[in-house]
Design a protein that fits this description.
The structure holds 2 protein chains of 2 kinds.
Chain A (H helix, E strand, L loop, with lengths): L2 H19 L3 H22 L5 H29 L11 H21 L10 H18 L3 H19 L8 H29 L13
Chain B lengths: L1 H18 L5 H25 L14 H27 L5 H20 L3 H19 L5 H32 L9 H6 L6 H19 L7 H8 L2 H28 L3 H23 L5 H22 L2 H31 L10 H4 L1 H14 L6 H15 L3 H27 L13 H19 L3 H13 L6
Classes of the chains: A mainly alpha, B mainly alpha.
């Protein structure tokens, strides 16, 4: 079982690049759903022994991150009738290049951080990569829905880092994380729906009436 | 017991206000709002007289820092609730039950933040304050308020996500150290053995995360839009109470960092962010044409001052904690007064409100007084706290910091005075009949003005003691 967590982490990193490289919003959402599913499996794969708490965490994470949120985003796409428009502010090739730089940076930083040796060595670099690529998506995509996807990736990266503390940090925190993702995106989703109705478009770059 | 009640009471009242479905439900909801606010302030007052033991295995406690923020929030909330009585008679925000229950949920979340000794719990509370107020910003359901709420949600969610990463870093710094994870008491007791590299990373992420919620420059960009579009009483709560809660989060990690002897790393970073916020505020205040956006930049200025005081250490921490109270009350005061102007003219643009001293004599006078209070003129409380922060700069051997701060304060004074005095004294553009100012809408700001004035001339003994203990907790000293 040594390689299973590493394989899962590799897929998490690859799904980041899938989001960066695609032109289709639905592919982005699928990639994030896959990421959420792997994130749910990871606590089980990394644990030395099973416990009801871990199973609960896995089921909860998969339910929220891999099922409910992607379904909600897909619903928002249908409702708003967007299909192909990821509409980056910078090109796909530049996005992928930025992602590659983020990956390199993540490994460089993680190598210099003193981590307790019992953790998987890929965990922290994968976490930092996901956080950085989430921020890239959040800042370089114009569609409000794609920005929500970026935010979810950011949260996923933070969750990955939280796995290093899964055994010492209390239960409440994990619920807090899930709740946060859920409520945050739920509310953002409502707003996205309104943006579409008010502006006849989900383009947050049109939100420029307020400025100094 | 009282600590748990302080957190649960507003949340229960919020749920009650949301579910009420009777013929007089609007009136009932306002009753619930005022009753819960009064009971909350009553409970907070008892904490000053009879201290209580920590609750929930030490996760909740009323330490000096938290008690200051809790009392400020509770007092400001009661004033806002009473103001809301008059406000809701004039204005019907869409989704009326959302309005009242959002306000109450905010009070509950802010109480959790103030009392939390577990940093993850504090984080959950700060996240909840964001979510509780978001629907209230969006109350007009038009393009401008939609843009404001989108910016507010995206920026503060990203900020709060980075803060969560900072909290994970702190837990990593504490790994292998005896004590309960992320509980302030144990963090402070074992501060020396925390891992310095992780603690530093944690401080930076929490500074950026909570700094976004506070509105420190350069993470302040949501602030003018959100305050400009939110109903004035919501903006007042945000500028007065929510920013103070976020500052408390920052103060907690500063407390841990100082206890871990990292003052020399933390303080220059804080000073940098603080001075930059002052510079940004000074730049955007000059030439501003909208009074709510003006107040938003004034809030950026005061957040900068808080962080400067924290970064200076020594007596600066005392000045900062006093400034938390003064700034919170003064922001509530001014936003409520501006709210009266918006109710009368429908706009917060200076041009639409010219001659406000003639059309709304009480609000106009309060606005002009508020200008002097918020810019730190004597005899108001803000003068005393700003003066204390400046004194810390000179005592600490940084006269140039004092000089820079004074320069920015002077520019800000000129910029604010230009807009507000011109607006108050100018000839009304439209000859509008004088509007009768209801007592509900003026008594609140008058009460806040009275407290700010009182704090400038006399600080009651118990408050003095708590302020000194808070200053010591932050690694500083009393005056």
């Amino acid at each position: 079982m040594e390689t299973a967590p590493q394989l899962a982490l590799l897929f998490v990193v690859l799904s980041n690049f899938a989001v960066l490289g695609t032109t289709r919003l639905s592919t982005c959402i699928r990639a994030v759903a896959l990421q959420g599913f792997l994130l749910g499996l990871l606590p089980l794969l990394l644990a030395s022994r099973m416990s009801p708490h871990l199973v609960f965490l896995a089921v909860g994470t998969i339910a929220v991150k891999a099922v409910v949120l992607p379904w909600f985003l897909m619903w928002a796409i249908r409702e708003a009738a967007v299909r192909r428009e990821v509409e980056p502010l910078i090109g796909y090739i530049s996005s992928l290049l930025l992602g590659a730089i983020a990956l390199g940076l993540a490994f460089a930083i993680a190598g210099r951080l003193p981590l307790p040796p019992e953790h998987d060595p890929l965990l922290v670099p994968a976490s930092l990569t996901t956080v950085m690529i989430g921020l890239i998506v959040l800042t370089t995509r114009r569609k409000a829905l794609t920005q929500v996807v970026g935010y979810l990736m950011l949260e996923n990266g933070i969750y990955l880092f939280g796995l290093t503390q899964a055994e010492s940090v209390p239960f409440l925190l994990e619920i807090g994380v899930l709740l946060d993702v859920f409520v945050g995106v739920f509310i953002m989703g409502i707003v996205v729906f309104h943006i579409n109705r008010e502006f006849d478009s989900l383009d947050s770059a049109r939100l420029t009436e307020l400025s100094d | 017991m009282r600590l748990i009640a302080l957190c649960l009471l507003p949340l229960l009242a919020s749920a009650l206000a949301f579910t009420l479905q009777t013929a007089h439900s609007n009136r009932m909801r306002i009753l619930v709002l005022v009753a819960a606010a009064t009971a909350h302030l009553g409970l907070v007052t008892t904490l000053w007289i009879v201290p209580t033991r920590p609750a929930l295995t030490g996760w909740l406690a009323a330490d000096p820092l938290g008690l200051i923020v809790l009392s400020l929030t509770s007092a400001l909330f009661l004033v806002t609730a009473l103001y809301a009585v008059g406000y809701l008679r004039r204005e019907r925000p869409r989704g009326g039950r959302m309005f009242v229950s959002g306000l109450l949920a905010f009070l509950g979340a802010a109480s959790v933040v103030s009392l939390a000794q577990h940093l993850a719990m504090l984080w959950v509370g700060i996240e909840a304050t964001t979510l509780a107020l978001a629907p209230l910003v969006f109350h007009r359901h038009d393009r401008r308020s939609l843009e404001a709420v989108w910016k507010y949600l995206v920026l503060s969610s990203v900020g709060i996500a980075l803060a969560l990463l900072g909290i994970f870093f702190l837990a990593t710094a504490q790994a292998g150290v005896p004590g309960r994870p992320l509980v302030m008491e144990d963090l402070l007791a074992s501060a020396d053995s925390l891992h310095p590299a992780w603690l530093r990373a944690s401080f930076l992420f929490l500074l950026v995360g909570f700094g976004t919620k506070m509105g420190l420059a350069p993470m302040h960009t949501w602030k003018p839009d959100t305050y400009g579009e939110a109903p004035s009483l919501v903006a007042g709560l945000m500028a007065g109470a929510l920013t103070s809660c976020a500052f408390l989060g920052l103060a907690r990690i500063a407390q841990v960092s100082v206890a871990a002897n990292m003052g020399s790393f933390v303080q220059p970073v804080l000073l940098g962010f603080g001075l930059f916020s002052l510079a940004v505020a000074a730049t955007f205040i000059v030439g501003q044409t909208d009074v709510k956006r003006l107040l938003a930049y004034s809030s950026v200025e005061h957040m900068g001052l808080l962080v400067v005081g924290l970064g200076l250490g020594g007596v600066g921490t005392y000045g900062t904690m006093l400034h938390v109270i003064n700034n919170g009350l003064a922001k509530g005061w001014l936003f409520l007064v501006v709210g009266n102007m918006v109710l009368a003219t429908g706009s917060s643009a200076a041009a639409a409100n010219r001659g406000v001293l003639r059309t709304l004599p009480v609000s106009g006078a309060l606005l002009v007084l508020g200008l002097f209070a918020v810019t730190g003129s004597p005899p108001f409380g803000l003068f005393l706290s700003e003066f204390t922060i400046l004194r810390a700069a000179i005592d600490g051997g940084h006269p140039w910091i004092a000089a820079i701060v004074l320069l920015f304060l002077a520019i800000i004074f000129v910029g604010m005075a230009a807009l507000i005095l011109e607006m108050a004294l100018g000839e009304p553009t439209v000859i509008a009949p004088a509007v009768r100012e209801s007592r509900w809408l003026t008594l609140g700001p008058i009460a806040l003005a009275g407290i700010v004035l009182l704090l400038g001339v006399y600080i009651p003994r118990p408050l003095q003691t708590v302020l000194e203990r808070a200053a010591i907790a932050l690694g500083g000293i009393g005056p």
